[in-house]
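Quick one:
INPUT:
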C-alpha cells in the first residue's frame, strides 16, 4: 500500500497544483472570459515548468544550456541586457562546449577499449553529472521565482469566496493583505513539488548513467545512451506539440521514476563510490587493527535489498552484514547462513566479491561486493574474516554476453 501511494503522489501533486493555482474565486458564478483565460494560462505555465524540470533532470547540462540559448535568441536584441544570468552567453556557451566534448568522448567508445575510457567516465560521473545537476536546479528555481506572482497572475479576485453583500466591505479589507501571502504560499508549493520531482527523476537518471559507466560493452553502452536520449527527445517532441502533451509524458516519466526510486538510490550510491575508488586507487595499506570492510550486498544475500551499502565483519565463526536503510535509518544486521570457511574472496575486474561455492555445477554465488579501495588486499581480508581463501576469476571465461550482463544488473 505504501509503494502504491508513493507512485500516485506525482499525479495528486499536479492535480493539487492545478486546483490551487486555477481555482476560480466565484465558485457559484459562471467563469468569465478573463477568468477562463487566466486558468488556461496558469495551467499551461505549470505544464511548461513540469516538462522543463523533468527534461533538465534527465540531462541537466543539456537542459540548462539549450534553455539558456533558446531564451537568449528568442529575446529581442534590445532586451537581452536584462536577461537573467543563466541566459547569458557567458554561462551557456561553455556548457555547450563541455557537452560537445562529452559527445565526442562517447562517440570514441566504439574505437577505443573500455579500460581506457573508464577513468574519463568515472570523472564525468563524479564531477560533471553531480555539478550540472546542482547547477540545473539553481537555474530552474531562479527561473521560477523570477517569474513571481505577476507571471502566475495571482490577483486579489483569485482568493475571494462568494460572500453576502453585507460583508463585502470587510472582505475588501482582508483582500488587500491576503493575496500577497496566498500568492507566496502557492509559489512555494510549486517550488517544493517541482524540486521533489526533479530530485526523483534525477536520481533515476543518474542510476542510468551509472549503469552506462559500469557497462563493459561499448556497443551496449551506446545503446543505453541512445535509449536515455530517446526519452528526452520524446518529452521535447510532446512539449512542442502542446504543453499539456508534454505534461502527460513528464508525468509518465515521474511515475516510472517513483517506481524505481529505491533501487536507483542504492545503485547511484554504489556507482558513485565505485567511481570514486577507481579514481583514487587502492588504499595504501590495510589497517592492522581492521575488523570489518565496507561492501555492497548482492541480490543473493537474503533479507537485504540489493546494492545496500554496509559493513561486513566476522562474529565468532559467522559473517554478519550491517547496513542502514536509506543510510540514516536504524541499522539492520543479517548473519550469513553458513560459517566463515564456506566463503572465499574472488578477484574480479571491478573489485573483489565474497562468494559461496554452489553445491551443484561447480559455480560460485556472489554474496557481497567489496569496494575497489580494497583491491590488492584480498589475502589480508580473507585471513581477517576467516575465509577459505582467494581465487582469481578474471580469467575464468570471456565476459558475459551483453544481454546477460544487463539482466544481471537490473535483477539486482
Amino acid at each position: 500500500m505504501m509503494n502504491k501511494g508513493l507512485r500516485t503522489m506525482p499525479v495528486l501533486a499536479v492535480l493539487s497544483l492545478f486546483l490551487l493555482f486555477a481555482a476560480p474565486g466565484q465558485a457559484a458564478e459562471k467563469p468569465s472570459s478573463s477568468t477562463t483565460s487566466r486558468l488556461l494560462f496558469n495551467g499551461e505555465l505549470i505544464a511548461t515548468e513540469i516538462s522543463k524540470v523533468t527534461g533538465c533532470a534527465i540531462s541537466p547540462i543539456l537542459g540548462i544550456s539549450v534553455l539558456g540559448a533558446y531564451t537568449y535568441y528568442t529575446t529581442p536584441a534590445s532586451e537581452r541586457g536584462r536577461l537573467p544570468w543563466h541566459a547569458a552567453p557567458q554561462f551557456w556557451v561553455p556548457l555547450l562546449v563541455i557537452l560537445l566534448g562529452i559527445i565526442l568522448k562517447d562517440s570514441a567508445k566504439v574505437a577505443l577499449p573500455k579500460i581506457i575510457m573508464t577513468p574519463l567516465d568515472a570523472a564525468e560521473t563524479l564531477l560533471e553529472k553531480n555539478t550540472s545537476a546542482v547547477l540545473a536546479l539553481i537555474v530552474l528555481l531562479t527561473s521560477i521565482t523570477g517569474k513571481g506572482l505577476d507571471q502566475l497572475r495571482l490577483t486579489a479576485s483569485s482568493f475571494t469566496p462568494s460572500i453576502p453583500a453585507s460583508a463585502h466591505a470587510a472582505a475588501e479589507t482582508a483582500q488587500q493583505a491576503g493575496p500577497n501571502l496566498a500568492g507566496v504560499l502557492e509559489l512555494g508549493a510549486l517550488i517544493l513539488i517541482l524540486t521533489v520531482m526533479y530530485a526523483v527523476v534525477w536520481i533515476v537518471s543518474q542510476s542510468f548513467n551509472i549503469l552506462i559507466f559500469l557497462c563493459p560493452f561499448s556497443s551496449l553502452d551506446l545503446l543505453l545512451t541512445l535509449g536515455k536520449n530517446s526519452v528526452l527527445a520524446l518529452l521535447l517532441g510532446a512539449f512542442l506539440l502542446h504543453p499539456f502533451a508534454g505534461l502527460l509524458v513528464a508525468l509518465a516519466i515521474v511515475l516510472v521514476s517513483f517506481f524505481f526510486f529505491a533501487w536507483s538510490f542504492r545503485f547511484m550510491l554504489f556507482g558513485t563510490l565505485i567511481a570514486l575508488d577507481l579514481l583514487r586507487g587502492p588504499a595504501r595499506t590495510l589497517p592492522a587493527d581492521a575488523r570489518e570492510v565496507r561492501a555492497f550486498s548482492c541480490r543473493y544475500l537474503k533479507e537485504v535489498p540489493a546494492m545496500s551499502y554496509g559493513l561486513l565483519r566476522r562474529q565468532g565463526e559467522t559473517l554478519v552484514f550491517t547496513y542502514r536503510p536509506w543510510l540514516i535509518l536504524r541499522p539492520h544486521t543479517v548473519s550469513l547462513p553458513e560459517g566463515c570457511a564456506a566463503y572465499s574472496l574472488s578477484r574480479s575486474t571491478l573489485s573483489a566479491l565474497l562468494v559461496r561455492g554452489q553445491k551443484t555445477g561447480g559455480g560460485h554465488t556472489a554474496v557481497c561486493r567489496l569496494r575497489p579501495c580494497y583491491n590488492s588486499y584480498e589475502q589480508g581480508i580473507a585471513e581477517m574474516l576467516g575465509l577459505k581463501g582467494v581465487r582469481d576469476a578474471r580469467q575464468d571465461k570471456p565476459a558475459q554476453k551483453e544481454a546477460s550482463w544487463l539482466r544481471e544488473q537490473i535483477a539486482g
